[in-house]
């Protein structure tokens, strides 16, 4: 290993270009397995409250620091993820924003600093997809119900579609308009019908 080192800076577009849905599902699957085998260190996250449930500072948000070491990849990392409503919401920005820093544990070189928002969204959806994959591993197709049509619902369907043929999706959402948008956006991932379910 050389002592000269360059840290990669990867924005969200580059991260999206480099990762397939299969890559994401496989990484989540391997990390779950690695954790079970004692090859992954995943300490409890530290939360910095910046007004989510505290009076001060009044930013209506939180920031989580989540370090981990993957023995399966021999890499350490830190995910620094914020959820901020307040001014961020008023500016029309998504609630979650994130950054991931990767470190080579041998020499302490920083390998990459990259957008963590897309990875966080997809990883959360993929956790659900992987769990369902294990529960229904012998089934080529599934039907399912979803409460809510937010970003996590989208990433769950996208990652699930890598494992299963989704024949029927029953969706309840607080507002009909968001449900309709979801239906249009997600129709390519669902082979069957997306049924919008009313409150009653």
Structural description of this entry:
The protein has 200 residues and is α/β, with parallel strands linked by helices. The chain has six helices and ten strands. β9, α6 (176-186) and β10 (193-196) form a beta-alpha-beta unit. α2 packs across α4 and α4 (117-135) crosses α5 (151-163). The longest helix has 19 residues, at 117-135. It is globular.
Topology:
Blueprint: E1 8-10, H1 12-18, H2 21-36, E2 40-41, E3 46-49, E4 61-70, E5 75-84, H3 86-90, E6 96-103, E7 110-115, H4 117-135, E8 141-147, H5 151-163, E9 165-172, H6 176-186, E10 193-196
Parallel strand pairs: 1-7, 8-9, 9-10
Antiparallel strand pairs: 2-4, 3-4, 4-5, 5-6, 6-7
Helix pairs in contact: 2-4, 4-5
Give descriptors for this structure.
200 residues, alpha/beta, 3-stranded parallel sheet, 6 helices
Amount of beta strand: 25-35%
Oligomer: single chain
What form results from the Cα inertia axes?
globular
Number of helical segments with 4 or more residues: 6
Largest sheet: 7 strands, mixed
Provide mean pLDDT, rounded: 95
Uncertain runs are none
Report the structural category: alpha/beta
Give the C-alpha Rg: 19 Å
Give the helices and strands as they follow along the chain: EHHEEEEHEEHEHEHE
Question: In brief, what are we looking at here?
Answer:
The chain has helices at 12-18, 21-36, 86-90, 117-135, 151-163, 176-186, and strands spanning 8-10, 40-41, 46-49, 61-70, 75-84, 96-103, 110-115, 141-147, 165-172, 193-196. With 200 residues, it is of the alpha/beta class.
